Amino acid sequence: QKEVEQNSGPLSVPEGAIASLNCTYSDRGSQSFFWYRQYSGKSPELIMFIYSNGDKEDGRFTAQLNKASQYVSLLIRDSQPSDSATYLCAAGSRGSNYKLTFGKGTLLTVNP
Amino acid sequence: DTGVSQDPRHKITKRGQNVTFRCDPISEHNRLYWYRQTLGQGPEFLTYFQNEAQLEKSRLLSDRFSAERPKGSFSTLEIQRTEQGDSAMYLCASSTGTAPYEQYFGPGTRLTVT
């Protein structure tokens, strides 16, 4: 059973702080990893993807991938109240038609 | 560039009725995926199309579920003889045929079976 695990939270951080979201995956064949943001009642919105070991930065967001540890993380710098949402980690692989296996998501709350 | 669209956005139906949902992917995307999401869970894969070919179906997709993608453009997902357990958000996503095959989701169809 291919699994993606995330802490369900809630994770609460003050405005302006760094939020750190973590994810582990069980399938070593996973090649691409995605972070989606989902507001309550809405559909997932892609915010970042990563497929090479190391860090990838995009504005206030940094994704980190460690394939040896099967670990993916997302850092959100200068967190804003509008970042309050559920963050979903997903993994895909060529062998599975790149269908995504999602974690249950981590609920992030940024307090003003 | 318009995003993925889904119709209807909400559907309330009585148990035993049939329902059909439509998804229009981003125009240049040849890959289309259907997922189902229930409260507190991440989306779960249902089925995958590459162009008009349905290449993979999840074991979650019972024989009451059928999906099509005629001409490789829009897709439909039909649920026959709906059950209360079918109540969920049905999400459609599309992607290009090049790595990393990132998927973009539509707004979803929320199904409530009473």
Apparent shape of chain A: globular
What is the helix content of chain A?
under 10%
C-alpha Rg of chain B (nearest Å): 13 Å
Helix-strand sequence of chain B? EEEEEEEEEEE
Helix/strand/pairing category of chain A: mainly beta
Estimated structural class of chain B? mainly beta
Which sequence of SSEs, written as H and E, runs from N to C of chain A?
EEEEEEEEEEE
Low-confidence region ranges of chain A:
none
| Beta-strand content bin of chain B | over 45%
> Sheet with the most strands of chain B?
7 strands, mixed
**Tally of individual helices of chain A:** 0
Largest beta-sheet details of chain A: 6 strands, mixed
Shape of chain B: globular
Explain how this protein is built.
The complex is a heterodimer of chains A (112) and B (114). Chain A contains no helices and eleven strands. With 112 residues, chain A is mostly beta strands. Chain A starts with a strand and ends with a strand. Chain B is mainly beta. Chain B is built from no helices and eleven strands. In chain B, the strands form two sheets. In chain B, strands 2, 4, 5, 6, 9, 10 and 11 form a seven-stranded mixed beta sheet that branches. A four-stranded antiparallel beta sheet of chain B has the order 1-3-8-7, with no helix packed on it. Chain B is globular. Chains A and B meet through β4, β5, β9 and β10 of A and β4, β5, β9 and β10 of B.
Short description:
By secondary structure, chain A is mostly beta strands. In chain A, 0% of the residues lie in helices and 54% in strands.
